[in-house]
Amino acid sequence: MDALLKTKLISNEKDCDFSRCGRTDRGVSAFKQVAALVVRSADPSGKFAFWPESTDQSTIDSYPKKEELSYLKMLNGVLPKNISVIAWAPVPKDFSARHACNMRVYKYSMPRANLDLEVDMNEKRVNMSFIREIFEVSLEVLPARASAKSSSSDDLIELTIKGSGFLWHMIRYIVTVLHEVGRGNEEPEVLIVCSYFSHGYIH
Q: Which intervals hold domain Pseudouridine synthase I TruA alpha/beta (predicted)?
């Protein structure tokens, strides 16, 4: 929001109709996040461009034809180096990045250590719930950098979950249970039960 205000693409946070396809917990980064909002435009004839209702007709009629603003250059010029806007596209005013999103992907990495996780996660996935839909779940071993001292316990395990959305702390709960399965403290079948609890099947 600071970048949008600094470049004067919005006048205030309240009136820009901001929406985003998902949210992350503090300390968690979103890659390829999608957001939608109303910003200043220089091209009144551009697709989905509109004038504020309070604009006088004489102002509209006398406005010179201009090229659209360089949104990427403007925003990336003031954003921190670890944040970049990679693309933009015009959308209808009533477009919601959150409600129009049909899939979200969550990746969670943890040390492999001595965990035994030979589990077919797709067999344990929940096909459908009244709240969220899980499309695909997978576990992948990410080998550590080769060195004389490295071993398989230095590898990382990456959990990837694709779904329509995720409940608050849902991934953390799944990873916690998965970790207990890997340590041998729980049976793989417990993943099904916990998934049902997470998705609202059991109350």
A: 126-191
